[in-house]
Amino acid sequence: MRPFVRFDIYRKDMEELSLIRLAQEGDTLAFRSLFEENKQHVFGIAFRYLKNAEDAEDVLQDTFIKAYHALDKYSPEKGVNFGCWLGRICVNASIDALRRNKVREAHSLDTEEVVDVRANSPRSNPEKTALDIEIRGKIDKALNSLSPKQRMIFILRHYQEYNTREIAEYMNSTEGSVKKHLFRAVDTIKKRLRHLIMESDYGL
Prior knowledge:
The protein is mainly α. The chain folds into 2 domains: 3-99, Rna Polymerase Sigma Factor, Chain: A (Orthogonal Bundle); 109-199, Arc Repressor Mutant, subunit A (Orthogonal Bundle), CATH 1.10.10.10. It is 75% helix and 0% strand. The protein has 9 helices and no strands. Helix 2 runs antiparallel to helix 3 (53-70) and helix 7 (148-158) crosses helix 9. The two termini are 33 Å apart. Mean pLDDT is 77; it is low at 1-10 and 102-124.
């Protein structure tokens, strides 16, 4: 990594640390800045997990309300960065939302956007587009069959592209436990999709 890149990262970390200190002292504008800096990241985790924008928005608000009330307990000296700390709160809030059965089944926004782009493309293939939608729907159903913890780990790994160490930090778990749940999740999804994989040219 080039020196100026390291400096930019260091400066960003110091700016964030300064905002955290101010927010812990009661500066609401500082906390608002932390919210603006991290809201897309938190919303992304919730949305991938819940597949519904309204529910993800509720989790986003719930995450930052809980973070605000627990801010005095956050200490960067413990080795957990602020984004990861927020991620843990978001993960728990998302799992709680699913367990309360408050999630409505709906197509994800990104799925609709992909379909729209392909439909308007001169190279669009209606049969392939329909198959893509079918595959996504079956993957969603397969994800619904997982336990809340397995589902979150699968999403953090395959949608958010975190490695097992990062997932373990988010889930406040061990890497061994994450690998075990991830293996079971992938195995379950493959079994659910086996017939679809055999009938098409697609694979996982």
